[in-house]
Every structure is written in C-alpha cells, then in structure tokens.
TrEMBL record:
It comes from Rhizobium phaseoli. Keywords: DNA-binding, Plasmid, Repressor, Transcription, Transcription regulation. Pfam families: DeoRC, HTH_DeoR. GO terms for molecular function: DNA binding; DNA-binding transcription factor activity. InterPro entries: Carb_Metab_HTH_regulators, DeoR-like_C, DeoR_HTH, NagB/RpiA_transferase-like, Tscrpt_reg_HTH_DeoR_CS, WH_DNA-bd_sf. The keyword Ribosomal protein does not apply. Transmembrane segments: none annotated. The keyword Transcription applies. Residues 6-61 form the HTH deoR-type domain. SMART domains: DeoRC, HTH_DEOR. The gene is glpR-1. This is DeoR/GlpR transcriptional regulator.
C-alpha cells in the first residue's frame, strides 16, 4: 500500500508539510484554486498511506519524534535532493572508497554515482545497492544486519563491525533533522550509531541534507557539525542562529540550489 503512486499535487502538499509545517485545508484550497473536498481527498490519500496525519481542518507530519517512510521521504524536495546529489558526486573522484549511509538524499547520491569509474561502495542501504548493482565499474559491499522493510536498509551491530573493516575516502550521510544547538539529529538510536561509525572510519565526512531538515525535530543526537568536513545543501535558512553556528564550525558549506540538473 505504501508504494502507491501519489500525484504531483500530493507531492507538493507533502513538501509543504515538510518545509512549512501544519497545512490547513482552506488555505490549500485557495492555493490550488480547488474545492475543499478535492483537497480533503488528497489529504485522506496521504494519511491513508502513512505520509501525513489528519486533524480537524488540516494536516501535519505523521507523529512527532518519528520519521516518515522512505517512499514518502523520496517524494519530498526531489529537485533539491537531486541538485545536492549531483554536486556531491561531482566532488568524488574515480577510484574512491565511499560509505553511503541511510536516507533518501543518499539514494539520490547513489544514482548520481552510477557512471563513476573504479568506485568501491560500502553501504547498509538496500536502495543504494540496487541502484548501483547494474554499474559494472562500481564494486558494492552490502552489509549484513536486521532488515527494516519500510526504510529499505539494515541496522544493528553487524553493520558497525563490517564498516570498521574499511577506511573510506568519503562517508556520505544524511540526517533526520538539523539543530543549531546539537548538529545532526535522528529519530533512531540504531541509525545514529551507524552514521557515527561511517563518520569515524572516513577521511572526508560529507553531510547531504536539504533546507527542510532545519524545520524538523528529532530526539537522538548523532554528531556535532565540527565532525563534518563538508555540508552540501540546496540553500540555508534565513535564520541568524543557524548562520552563526555554521560560521563558527570547521565544516565547509556548499550550497547548490541554483544549479541546473
């Protein structure tokens, strides 16, 4: 059921929920010049798929403190994620060893790496492995672990033990949320442990995350910004605390929202 195709308008509504928070039926109807009944059908479809949560008169993220499914995340801010992925891939040279971690933005990075030559990729992300399995010039190492069906990845101590056998040129990771105070945040302690293992065993530590991550709230600390070498994003929020924190951090910030894809 979660794999059902959603319409372009429903994808836009999901993106609005993700970037701006609560959306109201009356305002959405005016925005799209549609009846409230039509918008309500869109919202009902999204909620039935688990992508959003209804309340009287509007719609919000599913549940505070939990992430939405990978299918839903992949629909959100697709253009921004592809721009970020293209730029990340452009900075990864041939012959590199690359950790690709959990998340929808990382799967776009895998797509952008398909034509790279001589890469060795280590991942616990099933979608990444499937994306690269038809690229003969990319050697893919898929970790063992506990399969999470909705997220299409594997977690657990087996993943960490496998990762520690390598020292990668790059680790490319995403984040459930970004916090000016705490840095990278996630919804799952298991995910946070794996992301930390990738970062600890890589020379260049890459964070790939679009601007919407600054509006999300997750409860598990992953890593401070000073642990990241390079942060790729479509744009930065117009928020003085965020700008101050990033200016004080040691990581390089690469914005790529204006590039064509």
């Amino acid at each position: 059921m979660g794999s059902r195709v959603i319409s372009s308008r429903q994808r836009e509504i999901l993106a609005l929920i993700e970037t701006e928070g609560v959306q109201y039926i009356d305002e959405l109807a005016r925005r799209y010049d549609l009846t409230t009944q039509t918008i309500r059908r869109d919202i009902n479809a999204l909620c039935d798929l688990g992508h959003a949560r209804r309340f009287h008169g509007g719609v919000d993220v599913p549940v505070e403190g939990s992430n939405i499914s990978l299918n839903a995340r992949a629909q959100l801010n697709r253009r921004a994620k592809r721009q970020i992925a293209k730029r990340v891939a452009a900075d990864i040279g041939p012959g590199a060893t690359v950790f690709l971690g959990i998340g929808s933005t990382v799967q776009f990075v895998a797509e952008a790496l398909r034509d790279h030559q001589g890469l060795r990729v280590i991942t616990n992300n099933i979608h990444v492995a499937l994306t690269l399995c038809e690229s003969p010039s990319v050697e893919v190492h898929l970790t063992g672990g506990l399969l999470r069906h909705d997220d299409r990845d594997v977690v657990g101590t087996d993943v960490i033990k496998f990762v520690e056998k390598f020292y990668a040129t790059y680790a490319v990771v995403g984040a459930g949320a970004l916090s000016p105070l705490n840095g990278l945040m996630d919804f799952s302690y298991a995910e946070a442990q794996i992301t930390n293992a990738l970062l600890e065993n890589a020379q260049t530590r890459v964070l790939a995350a679009d601007v919407s991550k600054w509006t999300r709230h997750a409860s598990v600390r992953v890593a401070p910004f000073n642990k990241i070498t390079r942060f790729y994003t479509d744009r930065l929020p117009a928020d003085a605390p965020v700008a101050g924190v990033l200016a004080e951090s040691s990581m390089q910030v690469v914005t790529c929202g204006e590039e064509t894809i």
